[in-house]
């Protein structure tokens, strides 16, 4: 990508890195390598400060979100997170996942953006038919700081409960974020709920309908029930543009749509609030089955870093560079085992870094890309 005419001057950014557990540290390192390359090319300085979260924090200090990690995240320009959790902490009194929920809440990250694009050259990597997935371009807006994830929990010998609560304001703010995104895209929002059963879903539907009518009437809004939506997403995924949904449905549906692209290891996310730093993490987990073996696909984490450049730092060219390099590498077949390739995490990351440099070399000399 050649830099745009009025490119912003080089800047310095403080990025907190939370590697976490399992493959988290492996993919977090990949993102740092790619950002360092971007910094070299564009002259920005990215200062990385690593902090503990999840199981690694439990092992070191006995809690999943240490106070200094929280303070560092709140003071950072942005946060990158690998993944948390793993069987080692199953049944432990404090769970690694609590640290992740706590930092999302503390940073006020109510909107979790999970985009997916399946370009024609990548469609064959999906286990689904090429004609179904080719050209998919959608984004999930998942509410991230409320719902059943944050309701009161009870437990006795004979029963357990998880309370699901949504307030009008919590629905309004994430709905506005989704409608605003649709304005910049194909102008369609599909709001997903379970309004035939759940009271929180009936409120969700009412509020989304009202915000649409009052503030975004030019956007096409449709409502869908989560069970049939799970089916439609793999039968006709190209029909969707922006998918707006509550915390738990968004968690489940986003893992489902990862199949369209061929691997959960490809999908990035951005978690954003009203103001303050954002947090950027792949949608996958700590992948204990492949951790520590140089097998993890770094692309979801690397694309999360690109989302950080775009959303938090307004560095569009730099984000475009990473995305173009990832697309070129995936198209070339230089991929990890989850996509049927032979590269390890380190080699796949190197391929992305090399592609960024090659694209810049070609752009600077006005050479067609295939010579680079
Ligand atoms: N944001 C997070 O930190 C996050 C997200 C999801 C799950 N988790 C945690 O991770 C742990 C494991 O959960 P899980 O097994 O259900 O989900 P997972 O996403 O970790 O793994 C599911 C499957 O996808 C594969 N996979 C995941 N990431 C991959 C990558 N980058 N490259 C190649 N293959 C990849 C894994 O090998 C596994 O077969 C649990 O403790 C869970 O709570 C954390
Ligand atoms: C680990 C877990 C708490 C987390 C979630 O459910 O939000 C994960 O599945 C995700 O998708 O980020
Ligand atoms: Mg999940």
Automatic annotation (TrEMBL):
<keyword id="KW-0464">Manganese</keyword>
<comment type="subunit">
    <text>Homodimer.</text>
</comment>
<keyword id="KW-0028">Amino-acid biosynthesis</keyword>
<keyword id="KW-0460">Magnesium</keyword>
<keyword id="KW-0479">Metal-binding</keyword>
<dbReference type="GO" id="GO:0000287">
    <property type="term" value="F:magnesium ion binding"/>
</dbReference>
<comment type="pathway">
    <text>Amino-acid biosynthesis; L-leucine biosynthesis; L-leucine from 3-methyl-2-oxobutanoate: step 3/4.</text>
</comment>
<feature type="binding site">
    <location>
        <begin position="285"/>
        <end position="297"/>
    </location>
    <ligand>
        <name>NAD(+)</name>
    </ligand>
</feature>
<feature type="domain" description="Isopropylmalate dehydrogenase-like">
    <location>
        <begin position="14"/>
        <end position="352"/>
    </location>
</feature>
<feature type="site" description="Important for catalysis">
    <location>
        <position position="194"/>
    </location>
</feature>
<dbReference type="GO" id="GO:0003862">
    <property type="term" value="F:3-isopropylmalate dehydrogenase activity"/>
</dbReference>
<feature type="binding site">
    <location>
        <position position="104"/>
    </location>
    <ligand>
        <name>substrate</name>
    </ligand>
</feature>
<feature type="site" description="Important for catalysis">
    <location>
        <position position="149"/>
    </location>
</feature>
<dbReference type="InterPro" id="IPR024084">
    <property type="entry name" value="IsoPropMal-DH-like_dom"/>
</dbReference>
<dbReference type="GO" id="GO:0005829">
    <property type="term" value="C:cytosol"/>
</dbReference>
<comment type="similarity">
    <text>Belongs to the isocitrate and isopropylmalate dehydrogenases family. LeuB type 1 subfamily.</text>
</comment>
<keyword id="KW-0520">NAD</keyword>
<comment type="function">
    <text>Catalyzes the oxidation of 3-carboxy-2-hydroxy-4-methylpentanoate (3-isopropylmalate) to 3-carboxy-4-methyl-2-oxopentanoate. The product decarboxylates to 4-methyl-2 oxopentanoate.</text>
</comment>
<feature type="binding site">
    <location>
        <position position="255"/>
    </location>
    <ligand>
        <name>Mg(2+)</name>
    </ligand>
</feature>
<protein>
    <recommendedName>
        <fullName>3-isopropylmalate dehydrogenase</fullName>
        <ecNumber>1.1.1.85</ecNumber>
    </recommendedName>
</protein>
<dbReference type="GO" id="GO:0051287">
    <property type="term" value="F:NAD binding"/>
</dbReference>
<keyword id="KW-0432">Leucine biosynthesis</keyword>
<feature type="binding site">
    <location>
        <position position="114"/>
    </location>
    <ligand>
        <name>substrate</name>
    </ligand>
</feature>
<keyword id="KW-0963">Cytoplasm</keyword>
<dbReference type="InterPro" id="IPR004429">
    <property type="entry name" value="Isopropylmalate_DH"/>
</dbReference>
<feature type="binding site">
    <location>
        <position position="142"/>
    </location>
    <ligand>
        <name>substrate</name>
    </ligand>
</feature>
<dbReference type="GO" id="GO:0009098">
    <property type="term" value="P:L-leucine biosynthetic process"/>
</dbReference>
<dbReference type="InterPro" id="IPR019818">
    <property type="entry name" value="IsoCit/isopropylmalate_DH_CS"/>
</dbReference>
<feature type="binding site">
    <location>
        <position position="251"/>
    </location>
    <ligand>
        <name>Mg(2+)</name>
    </ligand>
</feature>
<feature type="binding site">
    <location>
        <position position="227"/>
    </location>
    <ligand>
        <name>substrate</name>
    </ligand>
</feature>
<dbReference type="Pfam" id="PF00180">
    <property type="entry name" value="Iso_dh"/>
</dbReference>
<keyword id="KW-0560">Oxidoreductase</keyword>
<feature type="binding site">
    <location>
        <position position="227"/>
    </location>
    <ligand>
        <name>Mg(2+)</name>
    </ligand>
</feature>
<keyword id="KW-0100">Branched-chain amino acid biosynthesis</keyword>
């Amino acid at each position: 990508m050649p830099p745009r005419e009025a490119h912003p001057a080089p800047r310095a950014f403080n990025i907190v890195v939370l590697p976490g557990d399992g493959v988290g540290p492996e993919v977090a390192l990949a993102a740092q390598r790619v950002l360092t390359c971007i910094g070299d090319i564009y002259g920005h300085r990215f200062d990385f400060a690593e902090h503990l979260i999840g199981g690694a924090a439990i092992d070191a200090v006995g809690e999943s979100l240490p106070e200094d990690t929280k303070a560092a995240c709140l003071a950072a320009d942005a946060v990158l997170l690998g993944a948390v959790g793993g069987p080692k902490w199953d049944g432990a009194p404090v769970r690694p996942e609590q640290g992740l929920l706590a930092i999302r809440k503390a940073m006020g990250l109510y909107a979790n953006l999970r985009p997916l694009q399946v370009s024609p050259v990548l469609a064959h990597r999906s286990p689904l038919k090429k004609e179904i997935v080719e050209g998919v371009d959608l984004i999930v807006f998942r509410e991230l700081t409320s719902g059943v994830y944050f309701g009161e929990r009870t437990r006795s010998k004979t029963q357990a409960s998880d309370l699901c609560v949504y307030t009008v304001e919590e629905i309004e703010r994430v709905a506005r974020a989704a409608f605003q995104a649709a304005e910049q895209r194909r102008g369609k929002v599909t709001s997903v709920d379970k309004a035939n059963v759940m009271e929180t879903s009936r409120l969700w539907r009412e509020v989304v309908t009202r915000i649409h009518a009052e503030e975004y009437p030019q956007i096409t809004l449709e409502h869908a029930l989560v069970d049939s939506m799970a089916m439609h997403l793999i039968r006709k995924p190209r029909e969707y543009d922006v998918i707006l949904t509550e915390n738990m449905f968004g968690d489940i549906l986003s893992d489902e749509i990862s199949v369209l692209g061929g691997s959960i290891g490809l999908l990035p996310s951005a978690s954003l609030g009203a103001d303050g730093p954002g947090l950027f993490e792949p949608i996958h987990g700590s992948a204990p089955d492949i951790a520590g073996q140089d097998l993890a696909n770094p692309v979801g984490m690397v694309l999360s870093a690109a989302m950080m450049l775009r959303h938090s730092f307004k560095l569009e060219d730099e984000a475009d560079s990473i995305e173009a390099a990832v697309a070129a590498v995936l198209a070339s077949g230089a991929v990890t085992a989850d996509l049927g390739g032979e590269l390890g995490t380190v080699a796949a990351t190197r391929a992305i870094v090399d592609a960024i440099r090659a694209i810049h070399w070609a752009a600077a000399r006005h050479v067609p890309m295939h010579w680079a």
